[in-house]
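mind reviewing these tokens:
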Amino acid sequence: MLNRTWQFTLDNISHQVILNFSLSHHYRLQFDGKTIFQKSILKTIEHYQTLEIPGHQVEIGIIPGVFSNEVYLRVDDEFISPLGNRKYKIGKETKKRFDNLENWRNLANTLGFNFYANPNIDPALRFRLVGHFFNLLVIIFPGLKNYRNTILPGVFVGIQHASMIEEQIKSVNKSEDLIQFQKKLKIAKDEFEISSTMTVLFIPDIRKRTTSQRAQVIKDFLSLMARYLKPGMEKCEGLECKKGLKEPLHLVFINMIPYLMCSDCISQITEIGKRKKAEYEKQPTNLKIGIINGCMTGLLCAIGGGMLIAFVQKLGFALWSAFSVFLVFMLVNNVIVKALTKWTNFSMLASLIITELSIYLGIFLGSVGEVILGQQFSFSWNEILERFLEFLNTPEFLSINITFIIFLIIPLSIYNSINHSKSVTRAFSPDVEVITDL
């Protein structure tokens, strides 16, 4: 077990931080003799922990490096050297992240906006800039977006404005100066959106620009939109707010999405989430309708597969064997999910069962068709059964079927189940970050 020890003094009080870690990436953090956490951290996962000292920001971070994890202790924006390491230098990955922090601070100063950083989240995503431009509330923050089939980091620039009707939104989208701005910056359609009270621009990979270039792009965008947008009456966006415009508002990020909310609504987020989750769990799944639709889809697939086998025979069987498990499963599962009012793990199981029945039915129908066509529309059930069993006992069919189920469908089912569980947790127990008063 290896360890690093830091000692520092704040307000005439001495503090000690000890981080023990092993080559298997098991970590134990102690602060002033108390264990803060003890757990294994994957080499690919970044971990950040704030230490509670009133009036100060103390953070320890574990960041994946090239050969080993980088560890740092930062106290009030200053890196502290571990004991016994006078030549201490922060790692390259750590330096990248905190250089980015300085870039965001400089951007805030250039724009004249307030700068906020949440020490409890990834340094790449912890920044928020808040300010007003021609009385329009502007919120700028980093995020990730699917950009041309690739997940890229970038910056979201959000403008809150007075409510706009659909015709007004269409008119702005068709304006010539906005179209020229989008062409100049090569902005795709899904990177710019105007809703009734919020306009958002996503600028991908902003780190490749200098601070002045970043600021200029944002200023140009804000100047352009200020021609079309009017300041809105800043009112609480809480789901059940009864106070409206009378209460002081806070800028709140809920799951990284900004809202304006009063103190009462912020305090009720957890309670509302619990109530909404209970209501969600009581909803019927509509699984029966989904299964009926899935069975109809499976039947159509089986008929198609049977015709393929009957008319193309061995080649048709080979094609049906190779592709049916995946294609039929995806079709059936998609039909079932569309019919559901909420997700259920049984939908994946139903999809798998219907898929297997469809495959075997397709082979049986193909056996019937092949025998009938081969004997000029006369047949015996014994011949059909023999041909059916012959197909089923084909090694290629069995191996492909089992391989798809074990290595594709089962992992996909597990992934979907875990992903859904995370989505439900995120929806009803969201991450709430209160930024500032407005």
User: Anything to note?
Assistant: The first helix runs from residue 92 to 111. The chain has three domains: 2-90, 101-233, 283-393. The two ends are 49 Å apart (CA to CA). Residues 41 and 156 are 30 Å apart (CA to CA).
